[in-house]
Amino acid sequence: MSVQTWSRCGISLLVLVFAVLLSYSPFSVKLFSKKQLDNKLFTSSKLVDIWNQQIQKSIGGLDFNRIAVGVNGDVDIILQGTDLFKELSTSANSSKVHPKDHAVITNIEELDEIFTLFLSKGGGGERFFSNFGEFQKVIEASRSVQRVKKFVGGNAALIAQKILELNKSVKVMVGLPVGPVLDLLLNPSVERLKSETTSLKMDEYHVVLEYSKSEIWNGLKAPASSRFIFSHDVSNSHMSCFHDFVASLPDFSPDLVVISGLHMLEGIDWEGRLMEITEEFKQIPRSAAIHVELASMAGSKFVNALIQKILPQVDSIGLNEQELWLLCHSLGFERCKGSLQPNIPITVEVAVDMITLLLEHLDTSAASTLSRIHFHTLSFHIIASKHSSTWNNQLTAVCAGARQAALQACGGNLGTDYVDLGVQPGDTELITSDQLTRTLKAAGVTFHITPSLICRKPLQTVGLGDAISASGLLYSRYS
Question: Where are the alpha helices (DSSP H) in 186-268?
């Protein structure tokens, strides 16, 4: 997923609170009352203190000191989506445009429809723009927009940047397509794989259309701030660097391999290429932990292929509520059958059920090594780790990811003037009457849970998922 440096995955940081109550849920959670909330027994500052104390316990020593990251990277062009559409058409912003999803975008009209869809839901997404001529019209129009920024983009590039920002002592190697502009933007401490597939004469560009909470477009109002991303990206859409990246791993000798960009395959005729990548996955040294960062996808067939071919070969994945929902929908789980997009609130209970079902499916259908899932949504974060795994320190890891998301969204300000811990009317808390973070065990899995913070005026809305996963991995123990 393409994102800016202060970034996978459209997160508008709210704090909701949820109860795990239905009879088939693997556990239940004691609630604290609205009276306790009204009395400010639980505050944003208390949550920050808990995060800091938990993280401070783990300072000193890392399990992952040599990290290889691939394979998607680009230059992000970031601008307000509504400003771009006004440049593209004098008749823009019409209630006649209806929100509609497109697995692949072929023209500007479809771009308007899918942007309207994600804005109306307050969610982030990403799609491939197949028509190069139409895509160039968009690039030309973006040059007329006053507020345009260029940043490092791509999950792999951003995860590598974030790891080095958080810990300069870690050795990081990247294998991704790098053009002249991206070369200047990347942290000079990042070791770069040099090959024919990674050295580009021209950069790949992704367009990030941001929108703000309560912004109205085509007659619909955004319930939260987020973004929609699109590109006509040849290198990343074919994962062109993957073979060279995997071939470089024995010499680099990593203890952690992070892979992203699989979602980009969906924009091409992907079956044959995915089969090649599946075989190349088997060449990754098993001495290293393997984490895959998922991103916005559209089709059940493609997602099902990832579940069957890729996920059983990895140790850990990172994803948000839209991606988890689509995984479960693609497997035909009853809870997720009705829609490709979440059509019910993603509570802790719902997330836990979906994570449990996914892990159980992989255990029964393949010799799966997947034992860790780092999940984040608008309201809370969960890291689920199997009891039989070697993953440890995951409560600290989930706190580190949530804190990093809040820091980036709020420009580093986590004081009470900038953030809130709160609930929406009718919601109840996921946490007990005496703690804000939770570790719960059920069905052979431990769920580490923390609420998020409300950023009153978010400064970043794109790609926070990359920073969440990078932070969570750095604070993980794997032995």
Answer: 234-237, 242-252
